[in-house]
Specification:
Layout: H1 3-11, H2 18-29, H3 35-48, H4 52-64, E1 78-83, H5 92-100, E2 105-110, H6 120-124, H7 136-146, E3 148-152, H8 159-170, H9 177-189, E4 195-202, H10 211-227, E5 231-238, E6 246-248, H11 250-260, H12 266-282, H13 289-301, H14 306-315, H15 321-324, H16 326-329, E7 334-339, E8 344-348, H17 351-363, E9 377-380, E10 387-388, E11 393-399, H18 405-412, E12 415-418, E13 427-431
Parallel strand pairs: 1-2, 1-4, 2-3, 4-5
Antiparallel strand pairs: 5-13, 6-9, 7-11, 8-10, 8-12, 9-11
The protein binds uracil.
Uracil binds at residues 165, 174, 179-180, 183-184, 207.
Length: 437
């Protein structure tokens, strides 16, 4: 095959066939295809796009570049959830135990946080001893026994994506829908499963800034999932405001645990009920979404899924008592309160900045090498839409770093106070073949 011809074909907006895409990925991995050639084709894809078939072939070839999990030893319906990443997003830690409480299995690969977004693996590591690096046999054993397990996305899963992403990052080709969709879905589909619910975030704290862009990405990912024989749906959800009241690590695990016991914030409840509800429909456990969501609310009311989160953490070596004794376990040197300078209703306007602030006070890392302070974090005393009086505390920063006026200045830039009450839904739309009435 002549690589220059492939570039020309894509440059003219023609579709590449499976054999051509196989050649592209195999050649890139073996270094037969050089970075400059791959950059040229990535740019051609950026401008010309890819149709659903091409995107699915690309995803399939990327998956074949690395390790996959067949989960042959796991019995029953296997469900998974993926979020494109947000600030304060601890939904997976609520979703998985709830789904498991219905007898559905959740075997999940998760990543670490970088920059303004947190990562599930970092959050769980706030329980001393917990590890996401366990053998495949142990992973399957825990999924069968507890109903859920989460492991770290290792280096050997989809190495083609790692290599391509590094190149896209420096060639202005990250924000191409087929390239993002195949990158995300290749890592999702590397693990066997039946149902997938995607949470595509949109807004200031997300990768996609508009509903239109988020919808296109969600549709591309749903098509890939269907072509790989998954029962898949996607929610487009609002990341113009952070999710829940806690941003950090240990404090997010605690908020997830509290939510499982009926003490969660409204937005987190709404999102989780929808995600779990859709999974229950995919698994055929309920006929309508209304019935499924009612059953989820019942599980939360009866607190039956909270012990599953604890059992899972302990099964992977973690000490969950630190979450149960949170105040004693996660002390910080400094607490900074940011107050309202007038009365009105809080509206968060820069979730991205809030995520970076959490990182700066120790809860995240700017580079992969940095370590995380599990006790550092932000508590939103007031969430979007909540009423405040002048002088009320809007948010509390907890940090072991030296207090800096800059932290307060940054925090104040993340919200405004408006005169009129407002309500903003978390779920903007759902893309699914299911009847969601
Ligand atoms: N996340 C991914 O995993 N890949 C992308 O291309 C963008 C976001």
């Amino acid at each position: 095959m002549n690589f220059a011809e492939l570039i020309t074909k894509k440059k003219k907006g023609l579709s590449l066939n499976q054999a051509e895409i196989e050649y592209l990925i195999k050649g890139f991995i073996s270094n037969e295809i050089k970075d400059y050639q791959m950059s040229a084709i990535a740019m051609a894809i950026y401008f010309q796009g890819m149709d659903a078939k091409e995107t699915s072939f690309l995803t399939g070839e990327m998956i074949k570049s690395g390790k996959t999990y067949d989960l042959k030893g796991v019995t029953g319906f296997k469900a998974d959830k993926h979020s494109t990443g947000g600030v304060g997003d601890k939904t997976s830690l609520i979703y998985a135990p709830l789904v498991a409480s219905f007898g559905i299995k959740v075997a999940k690969l998760s990543g670490r946080g970088l920059g303004q977004t947190g990562g599930t693996i970092d959050k769980l590591e706030s329980c001393p001893g917990w590890t996401g690096e366990i053998s495949e046999a142990k992973f399957e054993e825990i999924v069968n026994k507890v109903g859920m397990s989460i492991i770290s996305q290792s280096q050997d899963i989809v190495p083609a994506d790692k290599k391509m992403y590094a190149l896209r990052d420096v060639t202005g080709t990250v924000d191409s829908i087929p390239l993002i969709a195949s990158s995300i879905m290749s890592k999702k589909l590397a693990i066997a499963g039946n149902g997938i619910i995607l949470d595509v975030k949109m807004g200031s704290g997300a990768f996609m800034n508009t509903v239109d862009e988020a919808t296109k990405l969600a549709q591309a990912m749903v098509e890939i999932g269907k072509n790989h024989h998954r029962n898949i749906a996607a929610m487009i959800t609002d990341m113009d405001k952070p999710l829940g009241r806690e941003i950090g690590n240990a404090n997010e695990v605690r908020e997830a645990y509290e939510t499982l016991q009926g003490n969660g914030p409204a937005d987190l409840n709404e999102l989780t009920e929808e995600a779990v509800g859709i999974t229950l429909l995919q698994a055929g456990i309920f006929k309508t979404l209304a019935e499924a969501k009612e059953a989820v609310r019942e599980k939360i009311k009866n607190k039956v899924a909270a012990p599953i989160l604890k059992q899972f953490v302990e099964a992977q070596g973690g000490d969950f008592s630190v979450i149960e004794n949170f105040e004693k376990s996660f002390k910080v040197k400094n607490t900074i309160e940011i107050k309202a300078d007038k009365s009105g209703y809080i509206r968060y306007i820069d979730t991205n900045k809030l995520g970076y602030l959490a990182m700066q006070i120790g809860a995240g890392r700017a580079t992969k090498e940095e370590s995380i302070d599990f006790a550092a974090g932000i508590t939103l005393n007031k969430v979007s839409g909540e009423k405040v009086l002048a002088g009320d505390v809007v948010m509390t920063l907890k940090t072991n770093k030296a207090v800096s006026g800059e932290f307060t200045n940054q925090g104040k830039l993340t919200f405004e106070i408006v005169d009129k009450a407002f309500v903003e839904p978390v779920i903007i739309k759902v893309i699914s073949d299911l009847d969601l009435k």
